[in-house]
Specification:
682 residues, alpha+beta, 31-stranded mixed β-sheet, 35 strands, 17% helix, 43% strand, elongated, disordered N terminus
């Protein structure tokens, strides 16, 4: 291959190779290490070539001037040799020693030099050079220091005229064969330093580069790179060990690589082989991920993930073309298991993640990040207002806009001691900042909740629409592990149709408009609960002292309109063969204040029935349950007055004649269903 063609190939590796991801965080696509290293390498090889021509044709005293002039015209920077140049002349393989080689940085940079090399030693096969082939039996680079920087505007200091996209070199393709690169028999880098700074990603990394090379055929030769710095203000480390650089051009062998990356508590380990390390293709490795929070992987991959508790996952990482795959992965997230297959396509302007994740057993406390709660706890550890129940942790919109995804999560069994959840099936469809949960199915112990949710994250304040249907939800499961479980039966259904705006679930509900409807017909419930609603002392006492019994539910209907975060009841009826309970409920979702009043009207006569309305005030976090003090005082006052006239008459206010009537259940249920079918207006 002609040397000038080699330089064309190297020059074509510009700053936006397939190993870059266009977002403000470090990821597979954001830091194109292949591009960076090969651009610099290409400049040096080109400089060496012109230098060799100068060595052969001119006296040593002229070489520095010629090398600097030609190199500077190629690079657009000052390229100079400040030290000695020695030549060990040999007609077949002359040796060269150059001291203090440097290339200047861009104007205004913090460091005046972009590249500094303490010493460059190499031998060259002249007869190969005469055949226009570059072959270096030995190459040693001592104390090279390379500084690569990208400023806040995205300008890169390694963009040179030789490597620019406008150069004709950019029209050439990458080498079609690893063997097209220069033949380097034995290469060593001693005390090398690579500094990479990126203002956009808040990355400042300093790495040391070492190669240990015995002979061209020594399989124990290794390439080592290690360094540390900061990324997003967290400690960042990298350690890599690979095969000898001489094997990079041997297409018959896969290139081995052992890579370890750390960022804070996040640890990534990659171990395996590259069929073509130059093109980053034919990757066949194992990938081990572990850390304190899966959301932190966004800084390294660009994939938006929810907050999670500590995790450890391992699987098979492969790459062909622009498609990365992470298959047969399995591991733990908190106390939950997680496995599946995921692919990451980086061919377009935005990364696209597609796959399926499955869990045989999911602990509900590990799910907090999906709904805005802090992971690892039933409550939001990072709640701005600790007195609130609804999660008010803001959603990071920049993550929603960074990449697209289509991920399904299927959970066979959910561990939720305080909730009747059994299973889950959710598809997360994210396109250009719009997230759809469709379908979103939650299996209960008896019944299900299903529907859709859409979050439009393209606006600074997202729009959220949710439409959920409650299907045949069993009443018994809500009294599990209580004395009332065996007396409860029946199913209810309903619909939650809400639309709101906000960056957290609390904000969305506080601005929401829509309808919440639940209803049931038929079933049974503990008579103790019903009698307690009316505080029937006469009938409640034997039930508490002896065995409980049940009563038939004729219907239960709750129809609530929601306007600007205020939930108000249109219908609030619980009708049994024993009692008709009607009420009025208001819940302010802005401050979570409760204002609920329920009045029980018995259908049979009763002695010692207080029959005063039940009230619920306070907040969702701290509800205050009581009875209407005004009506209780009124009954007590009447009893006292009658008792003063004739003591036995004091009991009259507490005698209930049983004038309660049956509700028109059919009409109430149809009315509630009609309201739930109305469109939601924001």
């Amino acid at each position: 291959m002609e040397p000038n063609r080699l330089f064309v190939h190297l020059a074509n590796m510009n700053s936006e190779t397939p190993f870059s991801f266009k977002n403000r965080y470090l990821s597979f696509k954001s830091v194109s290490w292949r591009s960076i290293i090969l651009n610099v390498f290409g400049v040096f090889i080109a400089t060496i070539f012109f230098g060799l021509a100068a060595f052969v044709a001119f006296p040593e005293s002229w070489v520095n001037k010629i090398l600097g002039g030609k190199g500077s015209s190629l690079t657009g920077r000052e390229l100079a040799v400040d030290g000695d140049i020695d030549i060990d002349w040999h007609w077949t393989t002359p040796g060269f020693h150059i001291e203090k080689l440097r290339m200047s940085n861009v104007a205004g940079a913090k460091d005046p030099q972009m590249v500094e090399i303490e010493a460059l030693d190499f031998k060259i096969k002249l007869w190969k050079l005469l055949m226009l082939r570059l072959e270096l039996p030995e190459l040693t680079i001592t104390k090279p220091k390379v500084i690569l920087e990208k400023d806040a505007d995205g300008n890169k200091n390694w963009e040179l005229p030789l490597t620019s996209s406008g150069n004709t070199a950019a029209n050439a393709a990458l080498p079609s064969h690893r063997g097209n690169f220069p033949i380097i028999g034995m290469m060593q880098v001693k005390d090398g330093t690579l500094i990479y700074r990126d203002a956009q990603k808040d990355l400042d990394l300093e790495m040391t580069i070492e190669t240990i090379s015995g002979s061209p055929n020594d399989e124990n030769d290794v390439f080592e790179l290690s360094g540390d710095g900061t990324l997003q203000k967290q400690k960042f480390t990298i350690d890599a060990t690979g095969g000898a650089l001489t094997t990079l051009r041997d297409s018959s062998k896969d290139y081995p690589l052992d890579l370890k990356i750390g960022m804070g508590e996040t640890k990534i380990a990659v171990k395996g082989t590259f069929r073509d390390p130059v093109k980053l293709e034919g990757i066949n490795t194992t990938l081990d991920l572990r850390g304190a929070n899966m959301a932190d992987l966004f800084y390294l991959t660009g994939i938006p993930l929810p907050p999670t508790p500590a995790y450890s996952i391992e699987g098979k990482l492969e790459k062909e073309g622009d498609l990365w795959t992470f298959t047969d992965f399995k591991g733990k997230v908190g106390d939950s298991d997680l496995g599946g297959n995921i692919s990451y396509d980086i061919s377009g302007e935005r990364g696209f993640v597609k796959g399926e994740a499955v869990s045989q057993l999911l602990d509900i406390k590990d799910m907090g990040g999906f709904i805005g709660l802090a992971p690892g706890s039933e409550e939001a550890k990072n709640q701005k207002n600790k007195d609130r129940v609804l999660p008010d942790i803001n959603l990071d919109l920049s993550r929603l806009r960074a990449a697209d995804m289509d991920i399904s999560l299927k959970v066979s069994r959910i561990e939720a001691p305080s909730l009747p959840l059994k299973s889950m099936n959710i598809r997360f469809d994210l396109r250009e900042g719009v997230l759809k949960l469709d379908p979103m199915e939650l299996g209960l112990v008896d019944g299900s909740i299903g529907g859709t949710m859409v979050l439009n994250g393209t606006k600074d304040t997202p729009d959220v629409n949710m439409d959920l249907k409650l299907k045949r939800i069993g009443l018994k499961q809500f009294f599990s592990d209580t004395r009332f479980e065996s007396f409860s039966a029946g199913h209810f259904g309903g619909r939650i149709n809400l639309a709101g705006q906000g960056k957290s679930l609390a904000d969305v509900l506080a601005t929401s408009n829509g309808q919440v409807t639940v209803s049931m017909s038929g079933g049974q419930i503990s008579l103790t609960i019903v009698e307690a609603a009316g505080i029937d002392i006469g009938e409640l006492t034997p039930l508490l002292l002896g065995e409980d019994k049940n009563t038939t539910i004729r219907c239960a209907v709750g129809d609530f309109g929601v306007k600007d975060g205020l939930l108000s009841s249109n219908i609030f009826v619980f009708d049994t063969t024993d009692t008709n309970i009607q009420g009025d409920a208001k819940i302010n979702l802005k401050n979570e204040a409760l204002d609920i009043r329920a009045e029980a009207n018995p259908k049979d006569g009763s002695l010692l029935a207080l029959r005063t309305p039940l009230t619920i005030g306070g907040t969702m976090k701290k509800p205050a349950i009581g009875i209407d003090p005004g009506e209780l005082a009124a009954k007590g006052g009447v009893a006292a007055a009658l008792g003063a006239i004739f003591p036995p008459l004091a009991i009259i206010p507490f005698i209930e004649l049983g004038l309660g009537e049956d509700s028109d259940c059919r009409d109430l249920i149809q009315q509630a269903k009609a309201n739930s079918a109305k469109p939601v207006n924001q």
